[in-house]
Amino acid sequence: RKGDKLYITFPGTDNPLTDSAHKLFRVIFEYTLKQEAHKIFPVILKEEAEKHGFSYNSVRISSAHSRWGSCSSGNNINLNIYLLTLPEHLMRYVMLHELCHTEHMDHSKHFYARLDQVSGGKSDEYRKELKAYTIG
To answer: What are the tens digits of pLDDT across the range 16-66?
Structure first.
């Protein structure tokens, strides 16, 4: 890591176009993301929770390929390592979305009103922007 950039060195002996090199790169990439996520996500999630008055039980980091995050009925928050590939405002938006589920376990108008409140009135804008990104 140099400043706000994360560098991954790829072994120079493999042809990066081969399947085995591609698989190796993916393993290295996901491992690196997971290490960084474990350092960064708990800090940001705690910061956002304290800032907006949320409470949650735990945070889990995964590499699922289906969701950016989730919140269980026990207020355990799951965050995807691929959030690190998003612009920071969208990463924080996903975390705020999951924190809002600690108060509203659905996508009701009350949920979206709270999400809009904590996202500075930009929840619709951020939700649309997030759709341009894919996981993994």
So the answer is: 567 777 788 888 889 999 999 999 999 999 999 999 999 999 999 999 888
What are the DSSP calls for the chain, one per residue? -BTTB---PPPTTS-TTSHHHHHHHHHHHHHHHHHHHHHHHHHHHHHHHHHHT---SEEEEE--SS-SEEE-TT-EEEEEGGGGGS-HHHHHHHHHHHHHTTT-SS--HHHHHHHHHHTTT-HHHHHHHHTT----
> Global pTM?
0.85
